[in-house]
Amino acid sequence: MRRAELGRPRLHLRRTDSTNERARALAHAGAHHGTLVTADEQTAGRGRQGRRWVAPPRSSLLMSLLLRPSPPAERLPGLLPLLAAVAVCDVVGEDARVKWPNDVVYERDGALVKLAGILIEGRPQDGWMVLGVGLNVALELAQLPPELACTAATLGRGPDAIEPLLAELLDALERRLAGPPQQTLSDWRSRDALLGRQLAWNGGSGSAEGVDDEGRLLVRQASGELAALDSGEVHLV
Question: Rounded to an integer, what distance in angstroms lies between the CA atom of residue 197 and that of residue 223?
Answer without folding.
Answer: 17
